[in-house]
Automatic annotation (TrEMBL):
Domain of life of the source: Eukaryota
InterPro entries reported for this sequence: AB_hydrolase_fold, AB_hydrolase_lipase
Keyword Transmembrane set for record: yes
Protein's UniProt name: Partial AB-hydrolase lipase domain-containing protein
Region (Disordered): 93-119, 681-702
Species: Gossypium darwinii (Darwin's cotton)
Domain annotation Partial AB-hydrolase lipase: ranges: 295-349
Membrane-spanning ranges: 482-503
GO biological process: lipid metabolic process
Amino acid sequence: MRRFVDNALAVTKESVKTFTYESLNNIARLINGVSALLLAILLGKSNILEGAQGWELRPTFHGPRFPRWMENGVSSFNQFIHELSVDSDSSSVDYASAEDEPDEIYRSTPSSPLSDGSGTCRTSTHINHDPHWTNWVAYIFSWIFLPARFLLRIPFLLFRLLSSRESKASLDTGSPHPRTFHPFRKVHSSKDHVVQRTIDRRRGVIEDLHLAIEIFIEAIFDMFHKAAYFVFSPFAAFRIFGKWFSSPSAGDKDIDDNVSNASVPTATLGANDPSPRERNLTLHHTLNTDARTCRDVITELGYPYEAIHVITSDGYVILLERLPRRDARKAVFLQHGILDSSMGWVSNGVVGSPAFAAFDQGYDVFLGNFRGLVSREHMDKNISLRQYWRFSINEHGTEDIPAMIEKIHEVKTAELKLSHPNEETNDEQPYKLCAISHSMGGAAMLMYVIIRRIEEKPHRLSRLVLLSPAGFHDETSFLFTVAHYICLLLAPILALFVPALYIPTRFFRMLFNKLVRDFHNYPAVGGLVQTILSYGFGGDSSNWVGVLGLPHYNMNDMPGLSFRVIHHLAQIKRTKKFRMYDFGSKAVNMEVYGSPEPIDLGEYYSLIDIPVDLVAGKKDQIITSSMVKKHYRLMKNSGVDVSYNEFEYGHLDFTFAHHEELLAFMMSRLLLVEPDLKRQSSPKKALKLKKTGQARSGVSSD
């Protein structure tokens, strides 16, 4: 009878699992099919999908491609390296959030003499978020999405419960020694977890629902199975109940502690003492989302990394990242654009990323990050949300970039004095620094150079390469035009209620992260979203869905967009001039600029004293090529050494897509700048030459 009940429960369980699994799959197929139908109805826009990097519309539908380092096809050698890094005692698998890590973890190479002072611990700048209306909105939406949150949390709670029971049951044997295969099973799964993190095996919402339903069904039928067991074996049931009510022994507690604190014997390859040593493993991100940082990408690919926390004059803490070549006399500074981060410069891996290409050419590479993260890092720990987001493009060009470039100058000067003590240059700057900027980063870089020239301060740059720079926005899509007019009309009201645009809570950022993964798993849905976004942005062919999958949009943090930045762009569009932020008051403008009107930067292009390379995209509908040509004409008329080039790219292709011709062009521009060195001999040799010269002058006088 007991066997019959067991078989009946097993058959019923598998039937229920199959029915629910297929039902969910049919719903997903229906959504994907409807999306494919809508995609086919949108005539005349197939070029949007074909223009996206990695998108192939024919012969079948393929989803938007993520970068190569996020795909599943990792080489066997790289997989071996990642597996070895888990077993090696010299590496760490602690993927804790930024708030939990000490500052030293952000350095993979020895720090420079002056970068220690700039390293500010993230925990020391953690902000106590004050109550705001966005918290109420997030609270309301959290109740609306309560069923989804419940289903997403069921798998992990049940898994922990079942795993703890299985571990206790397996250890409750007659042997006095605990069995050790559970810790090693945990270690094996942790290794798989690390490797899967490296090749981006994060789950989407549909996959989470599959897992939640399966674990829920397993738990329900496990309860029925145990109930049947108690009915058919009453004496065993009474014995189990007696163990439950009895106090646990100290030995069982020790065994439980040993299981919970699992460790793995490891040995460092090539070490003098190869005897295994135990190292505890700590794993996070149980929700299986991709929360890698730029540091993770750089170090996973085997490049050196250093993080320098820079404090601006108004108290913002921004992150300056680096691929260090400490003895290099040529450096490059890469600055991202709007709603982006330094991740964009390394998103295509070793082959297609500007940061790695510059490093391989012998440059000391610095990756800048603007203020404006959800984590709100500031020296004032109690700064309010509205106060933190009160910045425009002005602050990017007059606060962020100056602070980062001055830190670069401080660090490089100190390092080169140590590595080349017997050499000197013709000026006080022993290195050459070039800058590559994209979109809003280009506008901020132009603002920086002009304002430094007006203030008669050195800008320390030798060349500018501006990829689709912002600054002129006469021609924009219908959506952007409507948004600009709404922003201008309702600016006083919107500034009070919408200080910035970002995803407010960890749950919604996690949900967004998983939805993007579903866009990749269901290509018709991803294609529909890609087409809708391309429609909204005027037909720009950039891979919008792929960019949304970048890991800097994760549950821990993400770049936000200040309302003042939006308002500043709207002012530029209305006036058709590249000028600084208008505070709306002549008195305030007079105090800040010394004139009742903001500074028109286009009128000061004659102050630019370095070569500038402008690059535009023919398929770019965010900043059209005609707007980049407007920069070019003003610079040319002002006597600036400027060049103009066009490529068949969309707006995001300059950083996200892999284009060898663009990398070759950028590297060729950088190679035009070489350090002008004047070598000096050793002190003894110099003294000898000096005496020889004096003797010759004495002979000639005789």
